[in-house]
Amino acid sequence: MSEITDFDALRRAMAENSEQPEGPARNARAEQLLAEAEKLGIPLAVIEALGHQLKVYNYSSEKDKMFVPFARLLRMWDERPEDFDEYETHSLHWVFKWMSSGMLDQPHIPLASIEKWLGEMEHRYRLAGHSERAVRSAEFSVAAHIGDVQRAERAYAAWLAADRDRMADCQACELQGQGRWQVERGADAEALKLWGPVLDGEFTCAHEPHTTLASSLVPLLRLGRLDEARAHHLRGFRLVRAMESMRGAYADHVEFCALTGNEARGLELLAERPAYFTDTGHPRSRMEFMSVVSLLMNRLTELGLGDQQVPGPAGRTWNARELAAHARAEALALAARFDQRNGTSYVSEWARARMGQRPLVERLALGVRAERLSPGVRAARPASVAPVASSPAASGDEPDLAALLAEARRLSDALQPNAVEAWAAVARAAEGVDLDARDRAEIADHQAMDLGPEGAELFERATELYAEAGDPGEALAARARAAYVRALGGRVAEAVEAVAEPYDRVLALYAEGATGVRQTASVLMGRARILMRRVQEADEASGAPGADVAAEADAVPSPASSHEAVLADAEAAAREVLALVEGHAGDDVRLASRAAEARAMLAELAVHHGDLEVAAELFAQASAAYVDAGLPWFAVEYEARLAGLAHHLGDTAEAERALKAALEHGGPHLEATGRAQLHLQLAEVLGGSGESAEAAEHALEAAHWADEAGEGPTFGAWARHLLGGFLLRQGRCAEAAEVLESALLDLTAETHGDGAIVQTQWWLGDCLSELGEHRASAERRLQAAEIARHWPEQQDHATLAHLAAESLGQAGLPAKADRAYARAGDLWRSLGNVHGLVRSLRARAWLALRTEDGTDTARELMTLALGECERALGATADEDAQQRLTAELGDTHRQFGDLLARSSAEDAGDGSIQAAFAEALAQVAQAVAVFASLGDATVHSRTGAELAAGWLAADLGRSAEAAARARAVLAAYADAVDETDVARARRAEAEQLLRVVEEQEDR
């Protein structure tokens, strides 16, 4: 830390300290600088140091310290106002406003003192000739804080009526305060209308739109504008995260999480700012923070997570229930102090209302990753998707067994998704009851269905019971089901053998009229399913050379020993099902389901044969059959398969339609995993079609449902990766950055591939660059480049190295930027990419010009860039390549001219400046000639260079040449049919140049 020896050194030190992060360290440095200022013996130095100290206190958690330096400044002003320069005079009056609001936020300062201060402020502003606008704004703040609505309304009206002058708060801050009052009065929509220019970036300041984005969250939720609320949270939290002084706005984001089902993210926010629990320098924001901590902890307790360990004040561990009580007590104690000072109960009522809020949205997907809460939270939270309506028999008083049986049979006959649960209820009710064989058979049959591969023995038991009940066809169907679940367990050959006898016997029974179509179709479908499993097994064996075939595959000789024969057997079985049931289905949904499934099997087999169009048509038929039968949830799988085929065939419209149909058909019956996968596929299809906005919606849903399914680290991370990219395409860089940073926490090379990591880092670097976070952008781009460095193809490595160099230059790190550009140049050279090489050389030249004594190096680098262009032009005969290289040569001449014009030092002699301008003019004239050789394709580039040359000629006193170049520009656009913005700007500049030349000639 350099010693402060003079006023300039003090000012540099204060400027450097102003750039440091908010917090105690910056405040401590300001205190040191005040002590150094006092040693200089210069009154203005002390005034500036006091002002600096006051400012850093105000923008920190130690706001209570700012009253002392202000009191000293005010005393110095009263004693010797001549010691204050114009800027410090303005600053002194400006921070009067900070004092009034600052006193209001400190409950130990009496209300009478605050009122007295308002009078003092009004008096001094009047003496200084300032408008009363700032005074009325301060009065409004006092009245609103104590709940004096009538006075607040009067002051509010007077505030808006008074003239804006230099003492008025910036428009962003004024609109923030006005909008907050509208929210207090219940006018959420009016508040958002007022905040519009701030939220849109028209008005900004050090704390805006940060505060307004946070303030808008709950009003947006109340108005049902959920997409905007989500966007404002993601965008706004990035702004307040690093700003220690914004505890109140930070609390708004925690509140948003508590009210939208994002409790886990709320806990993460608390963990990021442990000091917010205990910092006492700003009691009002601490009260606000502790109020929302209580709100969040109460929500967790309601969800059955009262024992969940949570972040809290340092010194002990906390669970949600304990912290809820602590935070509530702290918030109410602080509120009581304000009320005692104010003589009202307004603040306590406000705090209780905030802590007592109910969730406004059950669960608002944010797209960002959050650590999962204890497993019990998912059971405690209401289901995100409406459950299937319970049957009449399942509500009210406990139904009798006969009613349960009737309802279960109705549901299973109709193939309803909750039939299994209905049979489970029957089984529970039937314990210890003497039932006939048929009832016991059906119970065993459905219990077996619920067990999957483990249900073979129960199916065998059902077989015996059906036979005992005198239903041989259903007994054979149960045996076929037993065989199929063995195939599901990997015992395919055994299943093929086991189903052979039921198949033969059921056909015989059917021929004799001893069983019906339904039972026969069940056996035939069981056999077809088993043969399809054998197809899958054959695929796996043929797709993995050297893989062991299951031992039982050799146990039973099979005539279908080749892959083709396996496919043929399965196809014959599927067609046999179709031949049996078609024409018999009628209103029988079971038979309609058999026909649809058989078509889906034929579709799968068509895929094996490479008949993709046929497969797509068959999947479409299967899906339509299920929908027509009133069984849309069975169509989901086949719509998804159809979507994959359509996408492969290049029919993105059909892929999109099929995926949307799958989501619609699945409705409330889709499990979280399936829902996530469908949304993810749809996001990819839409994104590939350029529909970024809609693709983002589905990627968001995919991320949400992946998290619900416990798949956040797998395809949830991939969904976030896509979502970030789609948001970036829409220019929503702050939101995209939050999502991409979240995705990187789970993306791994093993699961997602290192390409996904590189792309995510790349996109994140682009976002950060757009947000002005250039150092962070460079870090991300360099991290991506390091991974891409090991790839066989080096195009991405070169591009990322070049982009990283750009970010390093914009971050004010010229030496590092130069090294990165040099590395990128080497890569471009190795790839034979002349354009990349030339641009890296030009960028290095501009960097060199920024360094001391770098002019010669800059010239050398631009000369090298010209040489690379000329050599490449001489080495290619390709016409398109020649045109591109010629345009690059023109750009390089133009930039060389600009660089030479800027290379002359301001304190150089006239002769030196004239020589530099003349050399620059020669380069820009070359650029004009090069662009002219390309004709109309580069007219804008040519006219831009022409104007640059004209201005240089004017500076050199060559009026005729300058005028000729201006006229050449006007002539270039004389015959333009549709004048573009560029053309209009060029014409206006050319006319301006002509006026300047005429004035020169007149002189």
Query: Strand order across the biggest sheet?
Result: 1-2
Number of strands: 2
Poorly predicted parts: 375-396, 544-561
Fraction of residues in H or I helices: over 70%
Q: Which structural category fits the helices and strands? A: mainly alpha
**Shape category:** flat
Largest sheet: 2 strands, antiparallel
Strand-residue fraction?
under 5%
Mean pLDDT: 91
Distance between the termini: 55 Å
**Count the helices. How many?**
48
Q: How many whole angstroms does the radius of gyration measure? A: 38 Å
Describe the structure in your own words.
With 1003 residues, the chain is mainly alpha-helical. The chain has a two-stranded antiparallel ribbon. Helix 3 runs antiparallel to helix 4, helix 10 runs antiparallel to helix 11 (188-199) and helix 26 runs antiparallel to helix 27. It starts with 6 loop residues before the first helix and ends with a helix. Mean pLDDT is 91; it is low at 375-396 and 544-561.
Keywords:
mainly alpha, 48 helices, two-stranded antiparallel ribbon, 73% helix, 1003 residues, flat
Q: What is the structure about, briefly put?
A:
By secondary structure, the chain is mainly α. The chain has a two-stranded antiparallel ribbon with strand order 1-2. It is flat and about 115 Å long.
